[in-house]
What does this fold into?
Amino acid sequence: MATPPSSIIFFLNFFLYAALLSSKTGLGVQGRQTAVLSPTLHNVHLTSLIPSSVCSTSPKGEDKRATLQVIHKHGPCSKFSQDKASSTSSSHTQILDQDESRVASIRSRLAKNLTNTDKSLTDSKTTLPAKSGKTIGTGNYIVTVGLGTPKRDLTFIFDTGSDLTWTQCEPCARYCYEQIEPIFNPSMSKSYTNISCSAATCNELKTATGVPPACSASTCLYGIQYGDQSYSVGFFAQDQLTLTPTDVFDDFLFGCGQNNRGLFVGAAGLLGLGRNHLSFVSQTAGKYEKVFSYCLPSTSSLTGYLTFGSGDAKSVKYTPSLVNSRGPSFYFLNLIAISVGGDKLSTPESVFSTAGMVIDSGTVISRLPPTAYSDLRAAFQNLMSKYPKAEAASILDTCYDFSKYDTVEVPTIGLYFSDGAEMDLDPTGIFYVLNKSQVCLAFAGNRDSTSIGILGNVQQKTFDVVYDDAGGRVGFGPGGCK
It folds into this structure.
């Protein structure tokens, strides 16, 4: 158990100033069964576009793996009661603008060497429920885990694009934003200890955060800053982490934040699911073998799951998850084709390979190379020509006014990856819904042909998305949750 000395607090303030001074949760397509008229069209009930006011929990079936529940931060299943009001157009604008900030951050980390991807791959299960929240990258998802002895339940954003797990900690030497649970107090945990500056793990922090560690009074300090200028600075520490009563990890390495600002609103911190050796995935590899999966619910009134460890996933089809030396924490994919209305587009495969693609749980809207997006948009607009257009919404330029319809016929969209993996998108993965008079195609085009493509979380909804990092692959299984 460690209590921060005043000298460390003084240094922490200086470290933050010196090192880090610079610088819509969308309505998903909801609920009701959608009829497939043919391999080319979905018959979508307009009532399914708006989340219910009542929370519905998705069943977990017979899966015995440790599972955490995933919940949308602003929906009726969430503890964040202040956010349960209906989203407004301005909130959607904020979400999409913040999504652009996250994408810009990912691009800046990868732009220097996108075409030099290192393709030499390494050619038991715990599940946490997941929730979506307006945090870094906006439409992120949250789960609840236990930290300390005795354990304190804390709500974390889970993020496949980040490595270091951190939470806000008392005494909040500089600043802590408002969170839903009481802030974690390390002095109340019997198993908490700070990491020494002389420890090898202290020197390894830079690979996980991008910021060199600092040191004062023999205690290791971390700092991490995100693309939207959110940040956390504090003590690098270890404590007991509890996922379920039978899945408990001693000496889990994490950041105990003393100075935290940004768009985390409500959540206690972040659970890093990247590939770095300090990530949760790597620290628990002895039990879960670097395998985890999640299903993001179709709407804010439903729940999904986050599961750790391998399981029986017969319907999952896998594609290699490539490693890029400039962004080794990200999970890269080879998108090779797109279909609209059952017909594959004529977009050359080289268009996708030039840009590359990562899958990211924190990005909301999928980004495509400009040529690929233009082809997708043209085919989609052609099959939706009988419906009135609506005003564009930020980065979303293909929007429709469905206010006078009870049902609409929507062309199917398929994404095809190397080695035979496919995603036949549910309607929840096709639209971003501001309201019934502004329903938009949930894809956006990049500005140039070399900018990284991103498979965002809207398109991932309802799929069982399986990350097998040890096997160098990512898989997709339809119907993972509602």
